[in-house]
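Researcher: Batch entry, complex prediction.
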Amino acid sequence: MGQTLFDKIWAQHSVKELGDVTLLAIDRILLHERTGGVALRSLRDSGRSVRGVERVFGIMDHVVDTFPGRTDKTVMPTGADFIRTFREECARNGITLFDIGDPRQGIVHVVSPEQGIVQPGVTLIAPDSHTCTQGAIGAMAWGVGSSEAEHALATGVLRVAKPANMRIRVTGALGLGVTVKDLALHILAELSAGGGKGCAIEYCGEAIEALEIEARMTLCNMAAELSAFNAMIAPDDKTIAYLKGRPFAPQGALWDQAEAYWRTLKSDDDAIFDRDVTIDASSVAPMVTWGASPQQASPLNARVPAYEEVAQRESRESYQRGLDYMALESGAPLEGIKIDAAFIGSCTNSRISDLRAAAAVLKGRKVAAGVKAICVPGSSQVKLQAEAEGIDKVFAEAGFEWRESGCSMCFFAGGESFAPKARVVSSTNRNFENRQGPGTRTHLASPAVVAASAIAGALADPRKL
Amino acid sequence: MSVRTPMPLVSGVAAPLVRANIDTDIIIPSREIRSTTKQGLKDGLFAGWRYTDIDARAANPDFVLNQPRYAEAKIILGGPNFGCGSSREHAVWALHEYGVRAVIAPSFNAIFYGNCIRNSLAPVTLSEEDIATIAAEVESADAPALEIDLVQSEIRTPSGARFGFTMPDEPREMLVNGFDAIDLTLTHDEAINAHRARDAAARPWVYAR
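Model: Structure tokens for the complex:
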């Protein structure tokens, strides 16, 4: 019987079977300032030390301010404690840190691929649920809690129960003006927020092969919203071209050896998947969420669904709670819902391709009066690249704030938030209650839809501008 | 440092909060995570639901934990996909600090589940139907208390009804014995080192820096 891509990487890292868990070797551990300091200090308090420090990277992203000219200070008075504790612990342990001011700093899931830290076939963990983003490179990458991060730091392995194999095949092609973010929201609406639970997802099919690497990251990123263990896309020519020459990618003879191995990393033709789902890419339209769970998503040109239309995936109570929180009525057209703010950023959609897509919509236009619009590039490298292309000016001339890189207002960890009950169209991944601020009403959408909505002052389809 | 303790039995007040997809932002919003320790989180637990004014800490009388009979809750009866979203372990630390020692739900997010096991908080999986039955009984009982026997895999209600559940051996042993996972894993040091040596020969580029 054939093996899946996931099975192959699992077998390569299997140290020992222990009943219903396996000791799995961990190749890369990424830490950030919100929990990295806690994990490293807890490790030290237990009289243990980091095993294999060369596999560990620290990045400032969760709490750091994103205002221009930032320091260690944040809107939240104690934010600097997180930053300084983490910095001290990284120094004490000899961990490579991409600190504030380092040109490599940025959101961990943007930076790691950009620097070539994640590679096909590696196991990579971080105390962040969106670590699955990095499966787009063909790695087995998943999010853990900070105790698990501490476990991996101390032992080099984790105790993991093997998830089921799930294949999501996406056939056909995305239509003109339809993005991978729309595909991700479409899949969430189809499968629900628990639709990937207990599963290692492999995305495949012609629509996936057609995606560029950054778009693949957006898709794998949203697997966290399916409650999946992880998501992966088999490495191909695009992956290999993407990694070539990156600072932490192999070089010389090691590159050749690595590339030969990477090319073997794919599911066998006769591999058995526990679950198999097929999605038709041509049926995907620009999407937007209307509730307080990412599964509460519909085509932008539709109306807020009646309960009967979504009854298969949720209870009447959670449907109604979502609508009440969002202050929306069943049957209201989604297009034209007035917004107070627009946000482009986060590990989902803040890469250079995202900023280019938004800039194409914004060029020569102005953000509607009264709309607060913010763009936070995913990394300092993305920011520099955008500035080299003049994209920063397009954003600024349209009326967007142009920020330093970080997780920022995706979840206001540093204390900055939108106004109470503000309605925000956001290129992020979670429209949870209070996520972006107290009572903030988040509509998830693609960068192009966010840009078009910022111009219109209401949810808007970029294809119609 | 950890809050782990051996926990063969959880016995106490059970609060029904049976909603789908209760995410960790709901359990503890980001702005309630203010310190670089695992403490000081209990007042932020369910802040968005528990308070009508979060900054003033004005209690929302409709929220279950603000009702006197559930205020001492040790057990939460939850809905499917409990603990979805952010990996923040603060969600489990906040629940634990409040006094919660078990969550009974039809399903859990995997990261949240793992965080529970590492912090002596029992995630018990039970069908939606059974949870609805137990919630109904708890709501009408004089004393809304349950017993969760992690050794016998059984939940006992005030009326004496028993509901069996299944939990894999690994998490059960961790909870019942209060094991330190790192200590257990380090007993396999030899296998870990041998694997590393083998793998470094097979995939040298992963180890080069």
